[in-house]
Design brief:
Layout: E1 2-10, H1 16-32, E2 36-52, E3 55-67, H2 69-81, E4 85-92, H3 104-113, H4 132-135, H5 145-151
Antiparallel strand pairs: 1-3, 1-4, 2-3
Length: about 150
């Protein structure tokens, strides 16, 4: 089983009941093909970046689910036939845990336990008695001594 994320843009004039009906239809297809729906998110009517099917606004619906590739082909077929859907995409490999399953205390504790690993400074071996300009001769070709000293 693989993780999938389906993003669809619905027509902006739909009632809440019609939106829920569309979501229910899609989740039923996933569950009937032995898949599991992990998360469903909807947005309010939002302005689109460019017109799609002569519409400038749409309602975004994101469904995260887990299942076989048969589900993807069936969802794709259903979405193409539905006139309420302006556009849709199904992405693979998206593993996003639902927000309801992550307790607030756990996520706060994880944030405080993590420390940023500072990169270790690597010192280049210095040649004793030899000026640095002579050591890095290939890097400083055509550079004056003043410019080379500023670069260090």
């Amino acid at each position: 089983m693989r993780d999938y994320e389906m993003v669809s843009i619905l027509s902006p004039g739909l009632e809440d009941a019609e939106i829920q009906e569309s979501i229910q239809k899609l989740t039923t297809v996933v569950q009937s093909k032995d898949g599991t729906v992990e998360n469903v998110r909807t947005s309010e009517t939002r302005r689109l970046a460019y017109p799609i099917k002569k519409r400038t606004e749409g309602i975004y619906v994101v469904i995260n689910f887990r299942g076989e590739s048969v589900i993807v082909s069936e969802l794709d077929r259903i979405m193409k036939l539905d006139d309420r859907v302006l556009r849709h995409r199904i992405l693979t490999g998206i593993a996003i845990p639902p927000l309801a399953q992550v307790p607030a205390e756990q996520s706060a504790a994880e944030g405080s336990d993590q420390t940023e690993a500072e990169p270790e400074a690597v010192e280049e071996p210095a040649s004793e008695g030899v000026p640095e300009a002579a050591v890095n001769d290939d890097q400083s070709a055509g550079v004056s001594e003043a410019e080379a000293s500023l670069a260090v």
